[in-house]
Amino acid sequence: MAILEANNIVKVYGGYSGEGSTTALDGVSLSVKEGEFVAIMGPSGSGKTTLLNILSGIDQPTSGDVSIASQEISEMSGNELALFRRRQLGFVFQEFNLLDSLTVKENIMLPMVLEKKPATDMETKVQELAQLFEIQATLEKYPYNISGGQQQRTSVSRALVNDPAIKFADEPTGNLDSKASAIIMECFEKIVAELNTTVLLVTHDVFAASYCQKVVFIKDGKIHSSIVKKGNRKEFLDRIMDHLAVLGGRTYDI
Ligand SMILES: Nc1ncnc2c1ncn2[C@@H]1O[C@H](COP(=O)(O)OP(=O)(O)OP(=O)(O)O)[C@@H](O)[C@H]1O
């Protein structure tokens, strides 16, 4: 079953095809199934962030529609969309976006607090996620007293706490060294395998993308091609590199 459907998304910045306008997305259609782990890759300026922002309701398309869990997000009012995003979508950012005045535990609980969930449910959920991501020992610490990798695992836990229909990640390994990147990508693998979570991420990092099951390549605002993992991660990494060489553009992180 498709959890996310995007049909013919067009995004023009700076007015409709007028002088000085930029067509960032030019008829993108995409379908993501429940339990899929998908990366979007492409050269700088190809429209990846614009696409992620539109799929996650942060930005509106100029035309086209997006539905998530069978709900049309392009037709929602501001309040409906804010509530939908809080309840159905999880976000992980390159900068972690943790609140320094809250402990790791409080940061993870925050979306449940906003939903006024019972305290016992919050405690159970935090312990479950902390165990899954091996951050039990950091729960009472503050974000500035833990490593970058632990901060990112806290941020992934927070994005999962309300059991979102889909999780979006924008360059989740962008601020991490290779060891922490591997740990975070293994966490994503784990939640996809064990919790049947759906994850859609944007990355320049070939190593990170090689953990996904599918990579969608975007160029000049259009879907160029996509590949699905068949063999092991190393073989997939080589195929991703071959595709990026054909796409051209900026140098990718390996
Ligand atoms: N707010 C904006 N106003 C005008 N043009 C924009 C805006 N945001 C993005 N663009 C343009 O839209 C195009 C796509 O940008 P986008 O940021 O989506 O690309 P990207 O693939 O994420 O790039 P990068 O890999 O460098 O982050 C680019 O030409 C960019 O200059």
TrEMBL record:
Matches recorded under Pfam families: ABC_tran
Keyword Metal-binding assigned: no
Signal peptide: none
MF-aspect GO terms: ATP binding
Keyword terms: ATP-binding, Nucleotide-binding, Transport
SMART domains: AAA
Protein's recorded name: ABC transporter ATP-binding protein
Lineage: Bacteria, Bacillati, Bacillota, Bacilli, Bacillales
